Fold this protein.
Amino acid sequence: MQLVGDDLIKVNHTILDRMHSRAPLIPQLAGHIIASGGKRLRPMLTLATTRLCGYVGERQIGLAAAVEFIHTASLLHDDVVDESNLRRGDATANVLWGNQPSVLVGDFLFSRAFQIMVQDGSLEVLRVLANASAVISEGEVMQLETLNNVGIPEEKYLDVVAAKTAALFAAACRIGAVIAGRGAVEEDALEAFGRNLGIAFQLVDDTLDYSAQQATLGKTVGDDFREGKVTLPVLLAYRRGDEDERAFWSRCIGKCEQKDGDLDHAMALLQRHDALHDSIERARHYGAMARDGLGIFPDGEAKRALVDVVDFCIERAY
Amino acid sequence: MQLVGDDLIKVNHTILDRMHSRAPLIPQLAGHIIASGGKRLRPMLTLATTRLCGYVGERQIGLAAAVEFIHTASLLHDDVVDESNLRRGDATANVLWGNQPSVLVGDFLFSRAFQIMVQDGSLEVLRVLANASAVISEGEVMQLETLNNVGIPEEKYLDVVAAKTAALFAAACRIGAVIAGRGAVEEDALEAFGRNLGIAFQLVDDTLDYSAQQATLGKTVGDDFREGKVTLPVLLAYRRGDEDERAFWSRCIGKCEQKDGDLDHAMALLQRHDALHDSIERARHYGAMARDGLGIFPDGEAKRALVDVVDFCIERAY
């Protein structure tokens, strides 16, 4: 935050400025979700990686805003798809305005992101973010296809996470090197950093869903459980459980048949098999790979800030 | 069709080829809507306008496929937004697979369109289609904002039509001149042709919704009426009606309170006030402007084909 604070203020101005439209509902609805206290993690990654690459200029501002627009568009569509009611403690846009505007305003923000990129004028940035966008929606569809399937291999689940979450982290970081014109080696290194960070971030998110700390973040405990979402803690507990326990997970997650007390029982099983603890251990592994991905860059303020992001993403589990 | 038939076969191959994905549901669902007998009107416009501009090459193939992907993405999202059950006589994707994959596969096709444009490599084409995409979603949101409002001025309604429908027609035509490198005058002329054609097309569509021919096209008569959609025939009948009639439209469309016999009564009112006939007359006006927009281009096979498209769009009303 200290490193990129000034840039982030400009990014926020650009976001407010570029969500304007002839249709008043667009800034209203987009403003609700954009203002609702998101961490701006992805745009910050673009800001910090351009800094790491020694770039001096203003291109990172617009492109960081474009990254946040893509992220926001996908959140709006996710909330419709998941029928979510709460995001960061606030009522979701689909609850306040209905599904219809949420879908359409998501489409608008997505198009607006591409307009900003076109204005920036780099085909390479457009390539990276168009690819990431396609991969994100593939990941979301793959997640739908595996929903309720407690038996999927851990690798398959990680593929989903790499696509639906980590692809945008990877792209947000890669374009830092693209903007700075640093060439393929640095681009690949930052993409790998972003991808591993994104996977670690999602695995911690999966764990937080079953953690008492959720409430303090304005989220409800057990949302994933109620939606029948297969996440890493469940995959681990399912594999480590006995026949009765597997039947329990198959009923609750597989068939989404749940009754009172099931969530408490699930929490106890996750505890018994160290599933939450070990999910965080898996996240640490990806966090370590992310850190090492920065090895080719010189030490300094920017690199330290990016390492801090890795630590922040994992430490928020505690 | 004769003019661009060979190219259209290549476009269809490109479409099938580029909707493949690691997530099997994507080609399955996208294939359903893409194969369901659409007219491929928008990609044909790109093919015919490149021909009109004397372009020789293959770039129009991929870009026409990109145009169709953007159109298909917006159809998928529209059917979710409108809660439609039928499209071109087939069950819609949202009925067959649910809203969730329809939203996500739409997002995928939209991203894929941008990937194709990036591969093509023209920032100008990207600019035109990114702008069109933003305007389309603005138009859809504006339509939501005016839904059920029978009192809106005709001009306001035409703004919605120009945005939600005509913007993609305009962009599909403009990129013909961009591909051919013909400069701003030809680009503007083709954009104007496409925009006026698109408005004419939508006004005829509005009229067909209240016409007995709908059934022969595999559509249901009165869908717009049941959804409380304000369209040009209703706007005209509302303005030309007496107090009782206006109360009728306000109840049925404004409040969406409908009972048996209302659709029949609505059809009788539309007939009494020549609202269907005069909507087609309005469409003719835009059709005439579209034709004149082609004036600066030399006569020949391509120009005749584009004039035929205008005639086809209007004649299908009869």
